[in-house]
Design brief:
Shape: globular
Number of helices: 6
CATH class of one domain: Alpha Beta
Helix content: 25-40%
Distance between the termini: 21 Å
CATH topology of one domain: Rossmann fold
CATH superfamily of one domain: Methylesterase CheB, C-terminal domain
Order of helices and strands: EHEHEEEEHEHEHEH
Structural class: alpha/beta
Largest sheet: 7 strands, parallel
Strand content: 15-25%
Radius of gyration: 15 Å
CATH architecture of one domain: 3-Layer(aba) Sandwich
Length: about 200
């Protein structure tokens, strides 16, 4: 059962069609939104990411492309840098931090949604919300399963509304998804998480 009060972080995975989906979710988050949001969007290798600049002008939350070992701050959206896996590290009760890795691609992708989701599930457990958006492969399905197995919650974009439905369909097929939602419904539900503080 989704409990908005317990959410300590949100992780989002997207690929083809995902930027448009994110544009329906992120600009609507108010300044009071407390959980950090970590986002992986598949970007072609060697292509600079324009996403932080694109969303910084549209969002009330701080937008960052993190460096390795940056502490994860509340109310901040982190976009994985192109060519790097983005992971969450949390050791011995310390403040969770970003780890960037150049390990081989996973599911043909670096950054990989699975890598982010699995590491965040380990760090946040039942306080994690994962969201699988539009995309043309199955990256994110195993990570979504890891989130659910750790006691967290996972949403998938309604495949009927996705530009590329393969990613949400794969997560649903894994039995990893608590709810299948339209983007409008997701945006509304996300605002229920604003009261959480670390």
């Amino acid at each position: 059962m989704f409990d908005a009060d317990r959410i300590g972080a949100v992780v989002i995975g997207a690929s083809a069609g995902g930027v448009e989906a994110l544009n329906q979710l992120l600009p609507g988050l108010p300044k009071a939104f407390a959980p950090p949001v970590l986002v992986v969007v598949h970007v072609r290798h060697g292509q600079p990411s324009l996403l932080p600049g694109l969303f910084a002008s549209r969002c009330e939350l701080a937008i960052e492309e993190p460096f390795d070992k940056d502490e994860i701050a509340p109310g901040t959206v982190y976009f994985a840098p192109p060519g790097y896996h983005m992971l969450v590290e949390a050791e011995g009760g310390a403040t969770p931090a970003i780890a960037l890795s150049v390990d081989p691609p996973v599911r043909f992708s670096r950054p990989s949604v699975d890598v982010l989701f699995e590491s965040a599930a380990h760090a946040y457990g039942e306080r994690l919300l994962g969201i699988v958006l539009s995309g043309a492969n199955d990256d994110g399905a195993r990570g979504a399963r890891a989130i659910r197995d750790a006691g967290g919650a996972c949403w998938a974009q309604d495949p009927a509304t996705a530009t590329a439905p393969a990613m949400p369909l794969a997560a649903i097929a894994q039995g990893a998804v608590n709810e299948v939602l339209t983007l409008d419904h997701m945006a509304m539900r996300l605002t229920q998480c604003i009261g959480y503080r670390q």
